[in-house]
Amino acid sequence: MRIELTDEQQMIRELAREFAQKEVEPIAAQLDREGRFPHETVRRMGELGLMGIAIPEKYGGGGADTVSYVVALEEVARACASHAVIMSVNNSLVADPIHRFGSEEQKERFLVPLASGRGLGCFALTEPQAGSDATNQATLAVRDGDHYALTGRKLFVTNGREATVALVFCQTDRDKGSRGISAFLVEKGTPGFLVPKVEDKLGLRASDTAEFVFEECRVPEANRLGEEGLGFKVAMTALDGGRIGIAAQAVGIARAAYEASLAYARERKSFGVPIGQHQMVQWMLADMATQLDAARLLTWRAAALKDRGEPYGVAAAMAKLYASEMAMKVTTDAIQVHGGYGYIKEYPVERYFRDAKITQIYEGTSQIQKLVIARQLLDLG
Amino acid sequence: MKVLVLVKQVPDTATQVKVGSDPRAIATTGITWIVSPYDEFAVEEALRIREKRGTGEVVAVSGGPERVKEALRSCLAMGADRAVHVLDPALEGADTLTTARVLAAVIQQEAPQLVLTGRQAIDDDTGAVGAQVAELLGWPCLSWIMEEAIAEDGATVRAGRQVEGALELFDLPLPCVLTAQKGLNEPRYPTLKGIMGAKKKEIKELGPGDLGVNVDGPQLELVRLEALPPRPPGRIIPGEPKEAVRELVRVLREEAKAI
Ligand SMILES: Cc1cc2nc3c(=O)[nH]c(=O)nc-3n(C[C@H](O)[C@H](O)[C@H](O)COP(=O)(O)OP(=O)(O)OC[C@H]3O[C@@H](n4cnc5c(N)ncnc54)[C@H](O)[C@@H]3O)c2cc1C
Ligand SMILES: Cc1cc2nc3c(=O)[nH]c(=O)nc-3n(C[C@H](O)[C@H](O)[C@H](O)COP(=O)(O)OP(=O)(O)OC[C@H]3O[C@@H](n4cnc5c(N)ncnc54)[C@H](O)[C@@H]3O)c2cc1C
Description:
Chain A is α+β, with helices and mostly antiparallel strands. Chain A is 52% helix and 15% strand. In chain A, the strands form three sheets. Chain A has a four-stranded mixed β-sheet. A four-stranded antiparallel β-sheet of chain A has the order 2-3-7-6, covered by helices on one side. In chain A, strands 9-10 form a two-stranded antiparallel ribbon. In chain A, strand 9 (269-270) and strand 10 form a beta hairpin. By secondary structure, chain B is α/β, with parallel strands linked by helices. The termini of chain B are far apart. Chain B has a nine-stranded mixed β-sheet with strand order 9-8-7-10-6-1-4-5-11, with helices on both faces. Classes of the chains: A alpha+beta, B alpha/beta.
């Protein structure tokens, strides 16, 4: 077997690396401090083709593959985790499901702007009582002629304030449980679609996480993505792909922390030698490098399976579980290697630590990933 | 208008250069190769000329071993229309005159109206090839340009180069050779579309035989490379700022003789 990127994948990585290092990294700390959405650099990501990497060119995308997507995402996440999640949600959770489940007309209307970066997408599944238990949807979509009227609340929507269009999951038939869920593409500015709140967060501070309220919001039937009752499948399929992206995000954050630690271990002296010569510091660095590589390989494998059209759900869950746990461990140790300075905001590692935490929570907590993996292992469906 | 850009593949600027086992070359294992940054300015300028005029063709040309195709592919990904690769391993260690002869032969075949290249390649830093090519072709050449504007009729170009405190402007008839200085433009990154589209573009492969050029012995023989002696470590002058600065000034004056 060979683990090697193709020429195109390498060039896409170079493109993402150059962009991230030159344009994103220099502003990341300030964006974090100010909690400001990076409009200008997100627009640049669109221009460069990073907002719809694996979407075919005819729908405004880059026409590359999932492996290209994860290598690019790692580079962006290494510079700024907020940029990475903005990119990941648009690519995996919105553009990808529209490409997969949308009609030709929906692709023209919704996919082309999202994949080319002219618009921005968001994915609204979580509700107050429906987090891990995503089937427990309370938002209702009641049919009214050739429209639906949406009523309910959505929480923690990444890109929620800035998005031009939301993929919203609603109950169209409450009696059918998860088979009664349908997906809708709802444009910003539709009457009855409100964004009352943006959360103040521990990390990912340049990414907006918003609450949505729908009050009798009328959405045309033409905006329903997939058949009625197919919404939960749309959501789960999107999340399978999304998890590969979050794994790549975790790898990128951890790589930033590891690289900072390695450099610091060469410079900082204690007891007359660089701290990198103390065996206990070496252990931390060795573990970081090893786990980082393992997580990246799991991520690449999941992406490669998706590109080959093979089942990738479990591989994606494993990659996401391992990479996010790894990122938390590596960023914790990165602060440790930096000693007291790691705890101080002048050094970037405390930001990596705060940003890493979310990767264990969204798109399915670590516990839920274990559940997904075990259910497959035991054939529990 | 057809614009030809001469590019060289060079080690990444971040490379820790080491003398190789053959002391006439550097050790190339583990090196990342890039398009020489000044040549990127030249590619960018060529693309802008095509965009401004609304028509035209940009052809990237390079010589060297197989890996040089990667550099050409990045030019294609940036937006060049096609590329020519003179595939000859002998070109790698060739002197600039040999390189210039080969490139001039390609230019004669392609017959462009303008040739752009970097003011120098950042590996050997000879800065000779652009001028040598022009000399061999009998074309005018302006080096280190900071700006250019081609006349609407495509017959002349006005180009400027920086001199001490001023910009020196020249009018040149086309065809001519211009070499790019930093500041000419800000090269674009290849977009994803550009990268994916690059593989559909042509890289024409030529051997020295196809050009009727003799890659005979170099006129300029490289004797050997010598590593610089390691730099002495920096020195930190301790103490209160006032005394430390006084000491710094003393050291700079008396020991380093820098002031
Ligand atoms: C910054 C941020 C961005 C987000 N972006 C989005 C977005 O764009 N779109 C969206 O729809 N949602 C988004 N979310 C929501 C996120 O996906 C949920 O927070 C997550 O799924 C967990 O749900 P919860 O918060 O309700 O926690 P809960 O489900 O209440 O879980 C609480 C704890 O219980 C555990 N637990 C729950 N059930 C089980 C079980 N069966 N077995 C074992 N343990 C269990 C969990 O693992 C967790 O540790 C975002 C959240 C945040 C914080
Ligand atoms: C919020 C905060 C409050 C503080 N309050 C006080 C205070 O009130 N008073 C005060 O005096 N100080 C205080 N400190 C300083 C704190 O005690 C030091 O930061 C701590 O002792 C570590 O020293 P250092 O930061 O220089 O790290 P370093 O000593 O540089 O250590 C860097 C890394 O190298 C490791 N390391 C170093 N030497 C060895 C070795 N020989 N073998 C193995 N590993 C080694 C360390 O464990 C660490 O992982 C505070 C720091 C912070 C962040």
